[in-house]
Amino acid sequence: MLSRIAYAKINLTLEILNKRDDGYHNIRSVMQKVSLSDTLYFDFFDRGDIFLECDRKVCSAEDNLAYKAAAMFRNKYFNKTGKTFGVHIIINKNIPDKAGLAGGSADCACVLDCLYETFSGIDYVEIESIASKLGSDINFCLDRHKSALCTGRGTEIQDCMPLKDVQILICVPDYGMKTSDIYKAFDNDPIYFKNDPSGIVKDLLNAGRTSEIYSLTVNSFAPICESVCKDIAYIKETMFSQGAHAAQMSGSGSAVYGIFDDDEKMRICFERLSAQYQKCYICGTVI
């Protein structure tokens, strides 16, 4: 049985732009993988069906993005090679769901990468095509990316140097955000940023000027989410007061991350927040 790691992501920036004709929104976002992760196990058979188990009830197996990825890959593999296979996938979840950390997208990307490496005959561009059909974060979650500026609806990726020499503290309040509701609220009262902070953050990372990105960690959704979940602002304030260089909500929430370069300050902040919130994680960046 093979095992693979699926990494969560945080949004160093998230700018929501105009609504597209296909119903999605254009975005600009610098995404960074972090070491908070799920573990996936794969058992392959010459023939058979796709079976998926998850140790956390997040949805039915057939509705899981990881299952859909396996089904789409297997159909394409059969059409290209005339061959088939069966697979049993087990997902051990550690990434919180409905938190803006791309846990489901990470699992989906992990399945695509594992199947690509196991079965020859499929070009990687076809893997990227499957990913883009299933969601907007999945392309970034593929193995080949660690930090990137993501544009379009999130599937156009420009890799950049990852964030280094820091630790990340993630705290998730017990308030799950529904992404579709957050987008509707945004459309009613949009928030735009001037001067392209995402492009600037990408350039600063590439130049190794990490300390200059901290004031640019923006999120178009943060004011909306903070208005319905007061814990988000409280967690950010706590992280800043305990020495975080930056603290921002990830994705459409409700996870908040803090960037630290002092282990003792981060540990004290972790102890304070974990006394109030069950879902607190210390992790590093994937480099």
Annotate the secondary structure layout.
Elements: E1 2-11, E2 15-19, E3 25-45, E4 50-54, H1 65-81, E5 86-92, H2 103-118, H3 124-134, H4 138-141, E6 147-151, E7 156-159, E8 167-172, H5 179-188, H6 197-206, H7 222-228, H8 230-241, E9 246-249, E10 256-260, H9 263-274, E11 279-284
Helix pairs in contact: 1-2, 1-3, 2-3, 7-8
Explained architecture:
By secondary structure, the chain is an alpha+beta fold. It has two domains: about 1-160, Ribosomal Protein S5, domain 2 (2-Layer Sandwich); about 165-285, GHMP kinase, C-terminal domain (Alpha-Beta Plaits, 2-Layer Sandwich). The protein has nine helices and eleven strands. It has helices at about 65-80, 105-120, 125-135, 140, 180-190, 195-205, 220-230, 230-240, 265-275, and strands at about 1-10, 15-20, 25-45, 50-55, 85-90, 145-150, 155-160, 165-170, 245-250, 255-260, 280-285. Strands 1, 2, 3, 4, 5, 6 and 7 form a seven-stranded mixed β-sheet that branches. Helix 1 links the parallel strand 4 and strand 5. The chain is globular and about 60 Å long. The mean pLDDT is about 95.
